[in-house]
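Exercise: predict the structure of this protein bound to zinc ion.
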Amino acid sequence: MTLLLWDQHTCLPLQTDADIDLLSRYRRTGGVVVSVNAGYAPHSLDDTTRLLRHYRGAVNAHPDLELPRSLEDVETITRAGRIAVVFDLEDCAPLDGDLDNLATFVRLGVRTLLPTYNHANHAGSGCLDATDGGLTAWGRSLVSEMNNVGMVPDGSHCSTRTGLDMCDVSTGPVVYSHSCMRAVWDHPRNITDDQARACAATGGVVGITGVGIFLGPNTPTLEAMTGHLEYAIELVGIDHVGVSTDFSFDFADFNEELARNPHLFDDSYTSWGPIQWMPPETFLGLGQHLRRRGWKTADIKAVLGGNFYRVAQHSWCFR
Ligand SMILES: [Zn+2]
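Solution:
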């Protein structure tokens, strides 16, 4: 299988000494694009900028990894079987309240941002909030400015209404970088059919993700992922479904984040015991798995990477 594989969200330790070589676990013929998280709700502009500088320096020094400076670069890097690295943010906190910082983050390689991480902030409501007020007026400006600077609005972790409002406001594709389908497994981090339909209507992509507690009863298997993929494709069509791992390379680091920020999570995260993730080695077998299920090559190509590539073509801006 030599098709492009695109992981729209993966998680290195959020530390300025994190070992970037962990990403070598994605190495495969056909190449990979990985979007590495570079900050979330507890992080400031300063924290995130320092983290991005570390990641970027380490990627530049690594023979298998590269920061694409154009979409042609993405093609060249992945065709050579190497790993193209881009970045994403979870929550608007790293903006320090200033929309001008979006352009700064684009220059540092950030391609997607989700406005709210589980709980309300001044952009809008999160998926674990008791009441859902949708996007605020500032949140609407945030989405518009993302459109202007070439960053893709991401509805994962947002409330249902925030996600729907983002699709209303955005003039370009909206994605769900790492969200499974609530009709398949009822979890507050999973999205409704309406959210998936609205995302597809913008030309966007729902990234079915490899987290055990979102796929089912803590079951991060290719079978469970395929169940969500096939449901989503039936609902919104083959052009609007993709994949991500949300893999945490350092489980201890994630558990420390959870312990350090208990207000950001609830029972829906902890009641199944330690969260199980789909490791890159399993994720790399997805294409073979879908082929054995009888999927057509064109469909596998779209879901593995073609659809997220199309969104990038439409939206990304290199400065
Ligand atoms: Zn997340």
